[in-house]
């Protein structure tokens, strides 16, 4: 396997070779670049724009639905619900219900989800730092038509 460096981390390139036997299960190899690799479905959820914003919003601790919706500008209640359920399914977000009156529900990043904070914050920071250049390139490109 080839070693590469991404933001100072040593990352091993992995190749998905299809289903593995129980003996090999501890060393599963994945490659999201292959159309047939099942890990690509996780990438679809994780690379979603709403995931970037939700993870950024939850990085400082648990939040209630309404607070989270207020922090993530432009997201509808329906889309936020769908996104939180998808992230819960992937093990990125945990939903905690409290038996109180009125009922209280909070969402927080799991240990797995906290591992996404660095990359998501970096992505957000990069977009914000480079958006003026991106806008200029868009205008130049659109003017060619």
TrEMBL record:
InterPro entries: ArsR-like_HTH (IPR011991), HTH_HxlR (IPR002577), WH-like_DNA-bd_sf (IPR036388), WH_DNA-bd_sf (IPR036390). Coiled coil: none annotated. PROSITE patterns: HTH_HXLR. Residues 37-135 form the HTH hxlR-type domain. GO terms for molecular function: DNA binding. PANTHER family: TRANSCRIPTIONAL REGULATOR, MARR FAMILY (PTHR33204), TRANSCRIPTIONAL REGULATORY PROTEIN (PTHR33204:SF39). This is Putative HTH-type transcriptional regulator YybR. It comes from Corynebacterium glaucum. The lineage of its organism: Bacteria, Bacillati, Actinomycetota, Actinomycetes, Mycobacteriales.
């Amino acid at each position: 396997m080839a070693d590469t460096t991404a933001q100072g981390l040593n990352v091993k390139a992995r190749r998905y070779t299809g289903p593995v036997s129980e003996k090999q299960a501890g060393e599963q190899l994945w490659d999201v670049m292959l159309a047939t690799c099942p890990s690509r479905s996780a990438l679809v959820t994780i690379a979603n724009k709403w995931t970037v914003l939700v993870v950024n919003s939850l990085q400082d601790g648990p939040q209630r639905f309404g607070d989270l919706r207020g922090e993530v500008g432009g997201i509808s209640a329906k889309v936020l619900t769908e996104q939180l359920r998808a992230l819960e399914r992937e093990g990125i977000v945990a939903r905690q219900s409290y038996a109180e009156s009125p009922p209280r529900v909070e969402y927080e990043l799991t240990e797995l989800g906290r591992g996404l904070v660095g990359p998501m914050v970096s992505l957000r920071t990069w977009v914000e730092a480079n958006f003026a250049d991106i806008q200029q390139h868009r205008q130049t490109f659109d003017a060619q038509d």
